[in-house]
Amino acid sequence: MDRHRGVRRTAGALVLLGMFAVAISRAAEVTLTCPAEDDIFNPVHIPHFTDCTKFYKCFNGEKYEMDCPSGLHWNIEQNYCDYPEQAHCERPLQIDPISLE
């Protein structure tokens, strides 16, 4: 019995470690600043640091806070507001919030 409990704990710890690594790798790929010039074919959006229902839209080098429609979360991977189960939003992001200023 005790042996199985130890295996479960180890497996649980590995799962948590894996989830943490994925969260950090996703956050590391996130754009934090708006480009000086806009590209209408590739708009830049920045996820909100603490709120899954918000994001920033870049325009002329400036960030503007936006809200997703009710019930939706910002999907970092797809770059749009999506259903929470698809967005897999985890906050706070594992980035330096000062970089978002």
From TrEMBL:
GO molecular function terms listed in the Swiss-Prot or TrEMBL record: chitin binding
Ordered alphabetically, the record's keywords are: Chitin-binding, Disulfide bond, Glycoprotein, Repeat, Signal
Output the Gene3D superfamilies linked to this UniProt entry: Chitin binding domain (2.170.140.10)
Taxonomy, superkingdom: Eukaryota
May I ask which residue range the UniProt record assigns to the signal sequence?
1-27
Q: What is this protein called?
A: Chitin-binding type-2 domain-containing protein
Membrane-crossing segments per the record: none
Q: Does the keyword Disulfide bond apply?
A: yes
Q: Is-annotated flag, keyword Signal? A: yes
**GO CC term (a single one):** extracellular region
- Name its species: Anopheles dirus
Q: What are the Chitin-binding type-2 domain coordinates in residue numbering? A: 31-91
What the entry lists under PANTHER family is as follows:
CHITIN BINDING PERITROPHIN-A, CHITIN-BINDING TYPE-2 DOMAIN-CONTAINING PROTEIN-RELATED
Entry's PROSITE patterns?
CHIT_BIND_II
